From TrEMBL:
Ranges for domain Four-carbon acid sugar kinase N-terminal: 3-233
Keyword Acetylation listed: no
Alphabetical list of Pfam families matching this protein: NBD_C, SBD_N
Encoding gene (name): otnK
Alphabetical keyword list: ATP-binding, Carbohydrate metabolism, Kinase, Nucleotide-binding, Plasmid, Transferase
Function: Catalyzes the ATP-dependent phosphorylation of 3-oxo-tetronate to 3-oxo-tetronate 4-phosphate.
Keyword ATP-binding listed: yes
Species name: Pantoea sp. BJ2
Domain Four-carbon acid sugar kinase nucleotide binding positions: 258-414
Catalytic reaction list: 3-dehydro-D-erythronate + ATP = 3-dehydro-4-O-phospho-D-erythronate + ADP + H(+); 3-dehydro-L-erythronate + ATP = 3-dehydro-4-O-phospho-L-erythronate + ADP + H(+)
Example GO molecular function: kinase activity
Family statement drawn from the similarity comment of this UniProt entry: Belongs to the four-carbon acid sugar kinase family.
Gene3D superfamilies in the cross-refs: Four-carbon acid sugar kinase, nucleotide binding domain (3.40.980.20), Putative sugar-binding, N-terminal domain (3.40.50.10840)
Name of the featured protein: 3-oxo-tetronate kinase
Length: 426
């Protein structure tokens, strides 16, 4: 294994896994496997990039640090020369963490001096300029992320956010320095290696910028960012003759399907609205969940009864409605109850009803579903939409999955994803 990734949620893990799998255009990527939690056995010999998906984004900081260090140890045991800490391209975190504390711990464990911090993902409109993160034409704190139920983002300046979270010193490399090229950028990074460890926020406005940053990061022990930071990392190993470059293939799974959605992002709500124009959709009311008036069997019945109409079940809602429910029942209680409901539903659908194509929306919901299914590892296939790959689980009955972060995907994503999992290229 050449590259090891520690991802703080399941959809983010899928996001960077497909980036490593496809590599730079025309060159191919690395043989990539996504692991659901820290594996208990060694990786298969052919794996060149291993992505460990944790559900650590919303944990207390110390728990996130412990899990991340455990993942790091396993990846090092597999021979990884480079570790990547993957977090969301909207830097989802609070002033207590978890990004800063995890970076502190990983930098200390790996004796890394200059740790690149770059959440930019231009393909999804996330860019970083003068240390400030933008979502399309809006600063992060005016993009809608300020209303996130778990990690409301109230500041667009990544330098300030990190300074409040991390003990390690924070510095910055501006876009004007990035565009000078990877060699100049590498010199800037190496000039400071004898000084104290620092977290280096690096601007990026395009995939070209991310490619320059990735090439400059060749040989760095620890890198961090959104999935875009990995664009050129396979190239570094391929050009050094340590990997050949491959193009992932994925089997077509044409069996029965289900869509489970827990994200309340604006993009996801629009996708649900589009889906229900032609397909079967069921909204879960928080009050019914908390009062136990609805359970996994009810949801399974809906999915199986409406198989011909691409059934979708969601708990998404308008941010104001979500906030009101949180005030009434408590944010943690709602999250815990919904995770259990979606997890139980997925387990019944796959293990008892034989569902073979499963699309999940939302990072927390994706984590609950794959944890409940106890899949172990997933093979990474083709890209459905930017940042969302087709995933394949081996077993007695094959299972194809798509795990979508809240803000990702085209408007007709859900039906499109099912078609791709079935082998369609349209």
């Amino acid at each position: 294994m050449l590259i090891g990734v520690i991802a703080d949620d399941f959809t983010g893990a899928s996001d960077i896994a497909v980036t490593l799998s496809k590599g730079l255009l025309g060159e191919g990527g690395l043989r990539t496997t996504q692991y659901l939690g820290v594996p208990q056995q060694p990786a298969e010999e052919q794996v060149e990039a291993g992505v460990i998906a944790l559900k650590s984004r919303s944990l207390p900081a110390q728990e996130a640090v412990q899990q991340s260090l455990a993942a790091c140890e396993w990846l090092l045991q597999q021979g990884c020369a480079q570790i990547v800490f993957k977090y969301c391209s909207t830097f989802d975190s609070t002033d207590a963490g978890n990004i800063g504390p995890v970076l502190d711990a990983l930098a200390q464990r790996l004796a890394a001096h200059n740790v690149i911090v770059c959440p930019a993902f231009p393909a999804m409109g996330r860019t970083l300029y003068q240390g400030n993160l933008f979502v399309h034409d809006r600063p992060l704190n005016e993009s809608g992320m300020e209303h996130h139920p778990l990690t409301p983002m109230k500041d667009a300046d990544i330098r300030r956010l990190l300074a409040r979270q991390a003990k390690t010193r924070v510095s910055h490399i501006g876009w004007q320095q990035v565009v000078r090229g990877s060699e100049a950028l590498r010199e800037i990074l190496q000039d400071q290696t004898d000084e104290e460890t620092q977290l280096v926020v690096v601007d990026a406005l395009s995939d070209h910028d991310l490619t320059l940053i990735g090439i400059a990061a060749a040989g760095e022990k620890l890198i961090s960012g959104g999935s875009g930071i990995a664009l050129a990392l396979p190239h570094n190993f391929i050009s050094a003759g340590k990997a050949q470059g491959i193009n992932s293939k994925f089997p077509a799974i044409k069996g029965s399907s289900a869509i489970l959605v827990g994200s309340c992002s604006g993009a996801t709500r629009g996708q649900i609205e589009e889906h229900q124009k032609q397909h079967a959709v069921l909204a879960i009311e928080i009050e019914d969940v908390m009062a136990e008036r609805i359970d996994a069997d009810d949801l399974v019945d809906f999915i199986l009864t409406h198989q011909e109409r691409c059934p979708l079940i969601y708990s998404s809602g308008d941010p104001a409605v979500v906030k009101q429910a949180q005030q009434q029942f408590g944010q943690h209680n709602i999250s815990q109850r919904l995770d259990r409901l979606f997890g139980d539903t997925a387990r019944k659908l796959v293990l008892e009803a034989g569902i073979q194509r499963l699309v999940v929306g939302g990072g927390e919901t994706s984590g609950a579903v794959v944890s409940a299914l106890n899949l172990g590892s997933l093979q990474v296939g083709s890209e459905i939409d930017p940042g969302v790959p087709a995933l394949f689980a081996q077993g007695e009955r094959p299972l194809a999955l798509a795990l979508k972060s809240g803000n990702f995907g085209r408007r007709d994503f859900f039906s499109h994803a099912l078609n791709v999992l079935a082998g369609s290229t349209h």
